[in-house]
Amino acid sequence: MVSDKQKNILNFINIFVEKNGYAPSVREICAGVGLKSTSTVQYHLEKLINSGYLQKNYKKSRALTIKSQNPKNKIPILGEIAAGSLLMAEENVIGTVNYPRSEETSELFALSVSGDSMIDEGIHEKDLVIINKSVQIKNGDIGAFLINNTEGTIKFLRKIDGKSYLVPANKNYKNILVNENVQPIGKVVSLIRDM
Amino acid sequence: MVSDKQKNILNFINIFVEKNGYAPSVREICAGVGLKSTSTVQYHLEKLINSGYLQKNYKKSRALTIKSQNPKNKIPILGEIAAGSLLMAEENVIGTVNYPRSEETSELFALSVSGDSMIDEGIHEKDLVIINKSVQIKNGDIGAFLINNTEGTIKFLRKIDGKSYLVPANKNYKNILVNENVQPIGKVVSLIRDM
DNA sequence: GTTTTATTCGAACAAATGTGCTAATATTAA
DNA sequence: TTAATATTAGCACATTTGTTCGAATAAAAC
Q1: Mean pLDDT for chain A?
Q2: What is the spatial distance between Cα A96 and Cα A111, in angstroms, rounded to a whole number?
Q3: Mutate to test the interface with B, among A29, A101, A192 (most CBs of B within 10 A)
């Protein structure tokens, strides 16, 4: 299906990207694989794209991406959870973190823990908790919640006498009854602490 | 050091790269962060580069790379620390974990925590601790140690009355005097917990 | 042999893109 | 206040870069 030259080109692109962090231009591919005409490279690129090995962005430079590359594993770190506006608004993103342990990174985001209400569960201030917003928080799980559309918090969800509570892991804090002011955001699936 | 706008730009680049697989052009950054002049973006890029957050390639398009982003981010997870044979022997590797937050991943490895001797420090059984074997463990640090060439453990290193001790974060365990039977392995630099 | 297909080249073009310069405006320091 | 610094804008320019067209060559099929 793809010729040796095409494999050669694909390989060159691969190595180039790994080395430089960005894709080569058509002319750099020329030089890299020993071709003198940009249109020859163009010709091979088209083949590679049709064969599904490459992706290109029309008229954008260095916009080649190699298909079936590793899953995108960067997930956004949210700062303050803005009132009302449900998450993910770009202005709330204060950074990104590599979290390559899951396929469906689009469902994930990270929150920096503030406060010590979960200290007894080994969740410290400044820890980064990874939250999957499409996993339902079940009884006994640790989840992220939005209270009064204002404040984001990490707590246990516990059912006590038929009612649901947000339960801290710190005796100095009280349980919070789950009512219409408490909005579940997602389950805490992982924790990262840098020291 | 870097202004909000600069963080904003860095973040935009981050997200753009994540989304598209290649870096944005100067004009795309303009549009992305709400600036009308390419030279303003140029101005901020220079700041980010001087501050070490970005790398650029002169006159090459879309040739921005975000620093401290290393593709080689898989580090080995060691199981039991085999007696004598210092680490890293392949037979001790029980898996790998992606850990992309450091440059020098070759200095790093991970240990799965066993036992609850550091529970009060929020380090639980089954947690994965990342250890940098080329960072010296200083007084007050949490480090990994090999005891009697047999048993690996995670403890505080504390100097008390001129002597060094391995100090657990759990009253049920005793301090261990550091002598020739205790061998430092490396500093615990990070912790990962999956839930 | 002839025909078809695959590959390569060269040149030219238009668009995308990084860069440089000057000036205006906003912010902060003195 | 004034002075210094930081930020933004606008414009023009030189390159880089993707693209297109036509033709030549090589390889394979017939």
Answers
A1: 77
A2: 10
A3: A192
